[in-house]
Amino acid sequence: MPPSDLPLSDTAVIERLGADLRSAGYTTDGVADLLGEEANAALGRGVWWPALRAADAAPPAQARLATIVRLFILGADEAEESVAQAFPSNGWHALWVNRVIDRTATGRLRAALDIRPHGDEAHEFLVISDQDAAMRAAPVSHDHVLGIGGASISLARAIIREPVARALDIGTGCGIQALHLNAHCDEIVATDTNPRALALAAATAAINGMRWDLRAGSLFEPVAGERFDLIVSNPPFVVGAGDRDYIYRDSGMAGDALCESLIRQIPDHLEPGGTAQLLANWMIADGADWRERVGGWVRDTGLDAWVVQREAADPVDYISLWLSDAGERPEEAARRGAEWLQWFAESGISAIGMGVITLRAPASGQHRAADVVIEEIAGAGEEVTGPEAQAFLARRTYLRTSTDEELLRRRLSTAPVFLEEQSLPGEEGWQQVSATVRRPGGPGAVLGVDEVSRALLAGCRGEVPLGALIELLADFHDVDADALAAAALPVVREAIGRGILFEVSNAAPAAG
Fold first, then answer.
1. How confident is the model over 133-147, as pLDDT tens digits?
2. Which of 19, 158, 286, 390 has its Cβ near the most Cβ atoms within 10 Å?
3. Which residues contact 61 (CB under 8 A, 6 or more apart)?
């Protein structure tokens, strides 16, 4: 019997496949143990041959796992007998019928899908997707379904993991975001325009013992009239002329219209107090401030927003990244790249911004101006994480609901921070030119300080009210206390907003 049109249409085969993979020890730790530290590290850098050597040298007790690793991680051909032994519940024929494996011209078997372990601190998953370009002898297909990648992992890390009733994953692909949502969401609706993506998402859900409401359609079309407590999206955000060469990256909408449309529709689908988090790309025109463009999108929603640009890529680097990702032949990549670059030039685009956007709806009955923060945070180790995003929103609420008079009555403490001083050599030795306080690991958690604000932060130990501390500093510097308070409060608010200062009785929201 020939394979079906879409992969893994037989749920019984999926269940047996998962059982065989797990019984063979096909987990993140199991693979790392099989390969060893050096080969596993090399594989992470894209060097595959040490891993193949380690798999070939596996002891008999790990023979099944070695076969699975060679098939799905290293892209090797395997004999029918080896595959049958690795998958005793299914055998190789059922996997071929369900398009998990292909037969080569020599009669050997090769993986047709990418199936690999993936986990976080508390959970272990199996993810089913298409093989990336590095595993194929040809470009990826039009309906290619991405697997685990840098973008999907960065979004998963950025999601606020509060328990909620209903969550929506727009552009689910193979279901990576839905996998992580499962631990804290009662109901998960996941959508995609690609039938193959929905088939692989269904397989990913089934092999992990999960149930998602999978729906076909673009953006919010499949959930018209519905609202959610949490909306997440890693959409096809690639900026281009509006072609749709590859469904996973191209929306068919020119420029950054897809991201703009997605953001503008979110308010109609968020419950009061609900949160939306997404990855986005945006155009940066010659001489323009990207904050104005993206700021217009989010301010019109009426939602609180934290927009973080992680990178601004020039057109050549941006195009090269996506051409490489698709694995196109050199002559085709050159032609497409030239056309793409010409479109950027004609559109006056000098760079493409890439980042993560967190939005939150006001609570029920709350009527106020939206609180919008737009910033560039590109430093290594300053990635947006779920705990940091949750703490950021909590700090903004704290600042919004605290008057200056109330802050002066509160006892504040400084989070674990470093004081960093910058000096230049001069005629009299090193001359300090600037100083900053930085909270390690906090996105954008840095604050410029002068002599007085340094002393103020050092004195914030949660022992005396802020107002009393300012009075002590005023006496020491022989200045008016009210004038010093007026000058210090904006710095204090900025420090609280960055998680550098927090109220001792309310440490979690402020410290991050």
1. 877 777 888 999 999
2. 158
3. none
